[in-house]
User: Fold this.
Amino acid sequence: MRNAWHVARRELYAYFSSPIAYVTMAAFLGVTGLLFYLILVFVQQAVIAPVIGSGWVIFMVILFGAVVTMRQLAEEQRSGTVELLLTAPVRDWEVVVGKYLSGLGLFALMLVISLYQPFVLVRVGNPDVGVMLSSYVGFFLLGAAVLAIGTMTSTFTSNQVVAAILAIAFGTGLWLAEPLGRRLSGTLGEFVGRLAILPYYYDFLDGVISTRNVVYYLSLVVVSLFVATQVLQTRRWR
Assistant:
């Protein structure tokens, strides 16, 4: 696991050595800040759920995951440095986990910066702190799942743009699985509906942290990273 942390630190340094981290964080914080202002001023409710539960913010998370992860392994493959990485004394899963943790760390930092919003709500109103906490837990798990999908798609190609498009397609597909499942009938509709990423998220926004919802997001992370590791292993033996 030490090697994974080393890879994560290296990736985090690369993020903050380029405009990627600053642009993506500024865009995301700008959108959430605007929504927060509109809800606070015009709706006048001391709630955080309408902000991080907004369709705009959810789509921003999908875009954030795609942009942050698109270069992780795609760029390594394009430049040929992945060969050096695979010949180093580091396991494939450590490479994948390290890359993933770097994106997750960036996302966590962004959430920490956005904590000014609940602090403002506490000062100006009387919000339900438990609901705010569960909402942030759900938001973090949602972002963790999206970032894992992006790490997986980054192993599929050596083109960063293609990797980003695939990540957006996977994330949007899981988003739209909910209405699609309702339109389909029988077992197929139920199966598609269970794959949807948002129904599990709504419970967090209502203040409910259930094992089923947590397991869903963690399973999505594990499966995505497992697939990424398997793809990376195939490149080692080429």
Summary: Residues 108 and 229 are 23 Å apart (CA to CA). The chain has one domain: 2-236.
